[in-house]
Amino acid sequence: MLAKIVINADNKKGKISKNIYGHFAEHLGRCIYGGFWVGKDSEIPNIDGIRKDVVEALKKIKIPVLRWPGGCFADEYHWKDGIGPYESRPKMVNVHWGGVIENNHFGTHEFFELCDLLNAEPYICGNVGSGTVQEMREWIEYMTFDGESPMASLRASNGRKEPWKLKYFGVGNESWGCGGNMRPEYYVDVYRRYSTYVRNFGSNRIFKIACGPNTNDYNWTEVLMREAGKFMDGLSLHYYTVPGTWERKGTATNFDEEEWFITMKKALYMDELITKHSTIMDKYDSEKSVALVVDEWGTWYDVEPGTNPGFLYQQNTMRDALVAGIHFNIFNKHCDRVKMANIAQTVNVLQAVILTDGPQMVLTPTYHVFDMYKVHQDAELLDFNIDTPEYMVDSEESIPQVTATVSTDDSGKIHISLCNLSPKESITVECELRGANVNKVTGTILTADEMNAHNTFDNPNKVVPKEFDEIKITENKMVITMPKMAIVGVKACI
Ligand code: AHR
C-alpha cells in the first residue's frame, strides 16, 4: 500500500489556533469531583484542593483553554451558589447527571485558580436556560469589574480584590436541547438580549459565543448567522462520534473491525459538518470574523459496566487515539474558520485524556495524541495534497486510509502528523517536499497490536508514544513506513 503526499513548503494556509487543542470540564460524574478537585483536606496531593498530578499532566500537553461548568449543567448552574465559605454554599441536585448532590465546593474562584495553574484561558458557559439576564450580567461584573461596584465588593469579600481576565463566554449551552428546547427563531432573540448584557468592563474584552447547531442542523446556523451574526464572535457546534445508536452506543473496549470502521467513518463526518456549516457562515460573514467553536466533540459509548449511567465513564483505546487524530487533522484543515475545539471531556468523562481512581491516575491513548499534536498549536498550516488508498471492511463503503496535517512552526521546522486508520494494513507514505530540502528528521509513533489496546491503572504504559525511525530521506522526499492503526509525528528540519 502506498500513499503520496505533496507538500508545498512555501504556501502557508493560515494559523492553526492553539485553542483547537482545547478542553471541556463539566460538573458531571467524576470530572470535577475526584478528577480535578479533591478538596484541601484530601490525602491526594493538591494545591488548594486541586489535584497536582492532573495539573502536571495537563501542563505537559499545554492545554490552551478550558470550558466550564457545562454542558447541560451550565443551564442549571447558579454561580452565586459557588462562592463564599464552603459551609455556607447551598447544595443542589445535579439532575442531568446521576441526580447526585452537588455541594458547590468547586466554583468561580476555584475554576480561575485551576486555569491559572494550567496556564489555560478560562471559557465560561452562562446559564440561559434557567437563569436570568441579571444573573448573567452580575457574574460578568463579579469576574471582571475593576473598581467599586456591588459585585466587585462581593468578590473582594470572598478574598479576590483584583478582577480576573475573562475572554471566552458562551451564552447558553445546547439551547436547542437540554438548555431550553428552543427553536432557532426564539433562541436567536434570546441570544441577542442576553449577550447585550455580557459587558466589557474596563480593559476586559469578551469573545461572545452563541449556542450553535446540533450536528447537521443547518437551519440553526442559517437563522443564527442571519439574525445575530453581527452580535457574536463565535458560534458553537456539537458533534459526538457514537458508533451505534443513542440507545445502544456500543462499548468502549469490546468491538469488532466493523465497529472500528463505523467509528472512523463517523469521526470523518466532522469534515462534512464543518464544510457545510462554514458555507452557511460564509454567506453572512465572508470575512470569517465569526469563529466556529466546536466546543464538544469526542467518542460516546455505553458506560463501563457497573458504573453510574449518569456519570458517562468510559475506557479509551487505540480506536479513540485515531478518532482524536482524525479530528485534529480536520480542525487544522479548517483553521480559517475553526478557531477553537474542546474535547468532551478532560477527566473521567467520555473521551477523557485522563482517568483517575482515588489517588491513581492513568493517561489514555487520547492524551498521547494531544501530546503528539501540540506542535501544531499556533503553527502555520502548509498546503499539501494527499493521494491515499481507501480502507474498507466490505466492498460497500470505504474511507481514506491516511489522513494528515502538515504545519511549520516559528523556527521553520515542518511537522507532519499522519494517521493510518486501517487496523490490518501497514502503509508506506511518500512525502514530497516542494520548496525545501530535508536535513534531518525525528519521529514519534503511537500504535498497538490490538484495536482495543488501552491503558489501565495496573498497566498504564500499554499504549504510549515511542521513538520512530522508519523514515528514509532522499533530498526532498521522505518515505515513511507506518504500521497498521498508527499515528506518526515527523519533525523535519530543513
Ligand atoms: O458532554 C456531555 C453532554 O453532552 C453535555 O453536557 C451536553 O452539552 C452534551 O449533550
TrEMBL record:
Any GO MF annotation of the entry: alpha-L-arabinofuranosidase activity
EC number: 3.2.1.55
Alpha-L-arabinofuranosidase C-terminal domain boundaries: 295-486
Database matches in InterPro entries: Alpha-L-AF_C (IPR010720), ASD1_cat (IPR055235), GH (IPR017853), Glyco_hydro_b (IPR013780)
Pathway involvement of the protein, from the record: Glycan metabolism
SMART domains, per the entry: Alpha-L-AF_C
Entry keywords, A to Z: Carbohydrate metabolism, Glycosidase, Hydrolase
A single GO BP: L-arabinose metabolic process
Keyword Hydrolase found: yes
Record's catalysed reaction(s): Hydrolysis of terminal non-reducing alpha-L-arabinofuranoside residues in alpha-L-arabinosides
Quaternary structure note: Homohexamer; trimer of dimers.
Entry's family note: Belongs to the glycosyl hydrolase 51 family.
Protein name: non-reducing end alpha-L-arabinofuranosidase
Organism: Thermoanaerobacterium aotearoense SCUT27
Upper taxonomic lineage: Bacteria, Bacillati, Bacillota, Clostridia, Thermoanaerobacterales
